[in-house]
Amino acid sequence: MTATTGTAVRQRPPRATGAVPLTQARLLRIELRRNAMPLILPLIAALFWFDSYRPSTATPPLYVVRTFWNMGQGHTIVDFGPFVAGVAAWMGSRDSRRGMGDLVTATARPRWAAQLATWAATAIWAVAAYLVFVGVMFAVYAHQSVQGQPPWWWVAVGATAVTAFSAAGFAVGACWPSRFAAPVAAFGGFLAMMLSSQTGFTSTSGWALILPTNSNGNFQPDSGMLYPWLPDLPIARIMLLGGLAVAALGLLGLLPGAGGPRLRQAAAVVTLAGVVAAGTAVAFARTARLGPHGIAIPALHDAANDRPISYTPVCGHAAGLPVCLNPAYRSYLPGVTAALAPVAGEVAGLPGAPVRAMQIGAVYDPGEGGAGQAMTMSGDPPVLRMPLGALGLAGAFGWTGGQVADQYRLLFVHAFTGAGNGPGTAAQRAVQAALLQDTGVPIATQPKVLSSVGLPSWARVTGGPQPGPEPATGPVYAAARRFAALPRATQHGWLTAHLGALRSGHISLGQLP
Amino acid sequence: MNVELTELTRKFGRVRAVAGVNLEAGPGVFGLLGPNGAGKTSLLRMMATALPPTSGTMRLLGRDPGAYGPRREIRRRLGYLPQTLGYYPGFTVAEFVEYFALLKDMPPRQVPRAVAAAIEQVGLGDRARAKLRTLSGGMLRRAGIAQAIVNEPELLLLDEPTAGLDPEQRVAFRALLRDFGQRATVIVSTHLVEDVGAACAEVALMDGGRIVFHGTPAELIARGEGSGAAGDAPLERGYSAALAAARSVAAA
Amino acid sequence: MTAAGIHSTPRGTAPAEVAYPPAVAGLRLAWLHAVSRRVPAALGLLAALGVLLWVSLRYHWNVAGGPAAQMFIPLTIETGAAAVIAVAAYGPFGEPERATGRWLPYLRLAAAVALTAAAFGALAAGATGGNLPGGSVALLRNVAGITGLGLLGAVVLGGMLAWAGPMAYLLVTEVALQGNPTTPWVWPARPPHDLGAALCAAGVFAAGALLITLRGPRESERD
C-alpha cells in the first residue's frame, strides 16, 4: 500500500508527561463515580449499627468502655473488612469479567497505573465510609455525654485495616478473576480476623499483639481520662496493615503486562518496602509489654505519654468525707459517694480514717490478668485512693449498681483494716466482715461479693480456678458475727485502742471481742 | 510505512491462527476480509499489541513493539476496536471515552475536547451522558469507535466496526473511515464486502491464517468476473473466486 | 459473504456424530450446565474448605470465650462453603438460556442440592476425628440453612454478590453468640438437636432452593 498524495504530515501526539498526576486524578474521578463499593455500604451500615454501635450503648458512658467492643476488639474492622475485601476483589477482576483485557492492554498507560486508580477509588469509598460511620457513632456518643478522649489512634488503625482489606481483596481479584474471587477474599478476610482474635488471646506480650483483633491489653481503663491513649501498639498495627496493603499493591505491578522494566523494578521496591514495614511491625510487637498504662513498645514509646493528663476533679461528699473523681466520672459521683457513705460514717472518728477519697489511675499488673485492684489508704493524714478504672462500673460487663456499691464498700473497709494487697489476717478479715455488715452488706452475702470477677486476686481462693473465699461459716465469720453484734460504741472503742495493732497484723482472732 | 509485517505467525497450541503473514501498509484505509476463523482477529490483536506473535517481525509506526518503550509509544498513537467490545455498564458514554483517552496518555487538558469531538463524530452527541447499559447494540459499537478515535490515532484497527449499525450509520461510518484514511493507517476487518468497496483503497483476503489475495477492490472484482463464483455483488463474486482459488491451490 | 462457491469442507468441521441416547443426553446436559456454573471449581473449593476445617479442628487455639468462641472458626468455614454454593448459581448466558425449554429449573435445583450435599460431605470428612461443636447434625443444619440464605441472596442480588448474605448472617450470628440466643432463626447458636432451629434452617434452605429453581439468580448488568 502506498501513501496517498496530499497526506498531511502527522504531528507527534503531545506527551502527557508532566501531567501524570492530573491524568491519574481524572482516572480516579471516573472510578470514584462508578465504583461498586457504594452498593455494599447500606448493608455494612446496618451491620455496623447492629454489631458495633448497638452493643456499646449498654456500657457506661466512658470512651474506654464504650469503644472496648467496637474498637478494642476490632468489631468495626470486622464489620467492614470482609465486605470491602469482597467488593475490592470484584473490582480487581473487572477488566477480565467485562472482557476489557485487550482494550486496556492496548493503551499506553501502564496497566498497573490503571489498576491503582481503580483500587484507589475502591479504597477511598471504603475508608471514607468507615470514617463517616465511626464519626457518626462518636457524635452520638458525644450527644450521650460519653466522657474521656476518643481513641483516635484506634480509629486510624481501623481505617488502615480497611485499606489493607481493600488492597488484599483487589489483588486477589486482579490475579484470579474468577466468580469465586470475591467470596474467597471476603471469607478469607473474615477467617483471618477470627484467627487473629483467637491467637494469643491471653497474651500480654509477644508478636500476637500485632493482630488486628487481638484485644488483650489494648484498652487500659484510664486511657483517655487519667492517662493518654498509648499510641505504641496502634502505630505498630498501622505499620503492619499499611505494609501489607503496600505489598499487595506492589505485587500487582510485578504481574506480566503490568508495565515496563522500570515500572516493574519500582513495583518490586514497593513490594519489598511493604514487606519490610510489616516485618518491622511484627518485630516491634515482639518487644511489646503490658505496662502500667497500656502496651508499650520500647522503640516506639514516648515517655511523654506516661505523664498523667492534668484535670480539675469533680467532688462530692460521702457522710462528710470529701470524694473527688476525674471529671470523666462525673456521672458516677453520686453512686460512688452513696456507696462510700455508710463506710465513711462507720469509720469516722477512728484512728486512720481517711480525710479524703480521691480517684487514682489503675496500675495494671500483668500477673493479675483481668483482675481488679485494691483501694489503698496512705499519707498523713490518710487519703483513700480509689483506682476506679480497675473496679466495676454500673452497667459495665454486667455489673449492677448494687454490686458496684458492695464492691466499693468491701474495698474501702479492706483498705481501712490494713489488709493491703492480700486477704489479710484472720482478725482483719473478721473485722472487715463485721464492718461490712454494719454498712449494709450482710455477712451471708459477703462470700458472693468477695467472689465477684473484677476484684483483686486476694479475694480469690489460692490455687482455685474460681474466685471465692471460704463460705460464711467458720471461725472468721463467727468472730465477725460476734464483733458485729457489739454495740457501736463498744466496737469503736475497741477499734480506737487496737486499730494500729490490727493493721500491723498483731491481733489474733481470739483477741477480738 | 506504518505497518510492516514479515512472516508474522501466531499459534494457539497446535492451531496456527496466523501463518506467516507479510504485509505493508501506509496511510489509507486497508480492508481485511476473510471467512470465520481465517485469522483476521488474531492478526488485528497482534497489531494492537494485545497479543504477542509466536514468530516473525512486526514494525508499527516505525517501531518494534517487542520492547516496552516503543510499544508504549505505539499505543499512544493507536486506536483499537475489538470484535467483542467489553465495557463497564455503569459508565456513561463520555466517561467511557474519557477513560480510554486518559489511558492512552493524552494530555489531560486536551481530553474533554477530544472526547466531545469523538462522540460527535460517531453521532452519539445527544447520548453522551447516557449509561452504556442503556444503549442499543449499534450505539455501543459507536461508543467503541469513539474510544478508538479519541486520540486521533495514526494507526486505527477496527474489527467488525459496523456490526449492529444501521445502513445510514454505515454510510456515515465509511465517510469517517475515508477521512481518517487521509492521515492515518486504518485497517478494517469485516465480513461486509460493501464496506470494503466503499471505503478501502486496498484489501487483503485471509484464509487459514494466510493472505491469499492482496490488491485493490477493483482487482478483487476482476477476479470474480467470468469465474462463475457465487455472490450477489461483484465484490462478493470476487471474494468467492479468490477464496476458491486459494483453497484449490492449497488442496493441490 | 455467502456460502455458495465454497466447495471444500471448511477446515476443522467435526464429522457428523451419532445422536445421544436420552440418558446420555441428560447427563451431558447436566455436565454442561455444571461446567457453565463452574461447579468443578466450586467442588475444588469445597474440598479445600474441608481440609481447612480438618486443620482448624486440630490446631490448639488459644481460645477464650467459651463454647461460642470454639464454634466460630468452624462456622466461618461452613458459611464460606455456603457462599461458594451461592455464587455458583450465577449463569453467564442470560436471556438465551432462559428462553429455552423446561430443563433449566431442574438443572438449577440439581446444582444447588448437589453442591450442598457436596459441601456437607467435604466438611463432614474434614471434621472426622475432630471435635466439631454440635457434630454432623449441627453441620448439616448450618450448611443447609446458610446455603438457603445465599441462594435467596442470589435471587435478590445476583449471583456475583450472593456471598454478601451469608457473610452478613455470620456477623449477626457472631453478635448473637455473645448472649444466649433462644431464637431459632440464629440456628448456629442453638443446640444440635433443637427442632425449631432445624426447622428454620430447613425452611430457609427450601425457600432458597425453590426460588433459585423457579426464578434463577438475578441477572444484573453489573455481573
Q: What does the model show?
A:
The complex is a heterotrimer of chains A (513), B (252) and C (223). Chain A has two domains: 31-306, no CATH class; 314-511. Helix content of chain A is 52%, strand content 5%. Chain A contains 17 helices and seven strands. Chain A has a five-stranded mixed sheet with strand order 3-4-5-7-6. In chain A, strands 1-2 form a two-stranded antiparallel ribbon. The longest helix of chain A is centred in the first third of the chain and has 33 residues, at 111-143. In chain B, helix 3 crosses helix 4, helix 4 (111-121) crosses helix 5 and helix 8 (217-224) packs across helix 9. Chain B is built from nine helices and nine strands. Chain B is 40% helix and 23% strand. In chain B, the strands form two sheets. A six-stranded mixed sheet of chain B has the order 5-6-7-3-8-9, sandwiched between helices. Chain B has a three-stranded antiparallel sheet with strand order 2-1-4, with helices on one face. Chain B has helices spanning 40-47, 68-76, 93-103, 111-121, 137-149, 167-181, 193-199, 217-224, 234-251; strands at 3-12, 15-25, 28-33, 55-60, 78-81, 155-159, 185-189, 202-207, 210-215. With 252 residues, chain B is of the alpha/beta class. Helix content of chain C is 64%, strand content 0%. The model of chain C is unreliable at 1-17 (pLDDT under 50). Chains in contact: A-B, A-C, B-C. At the A-B interface, helix 1 and helix 6 of A face helix 2 and helix 3 of B.
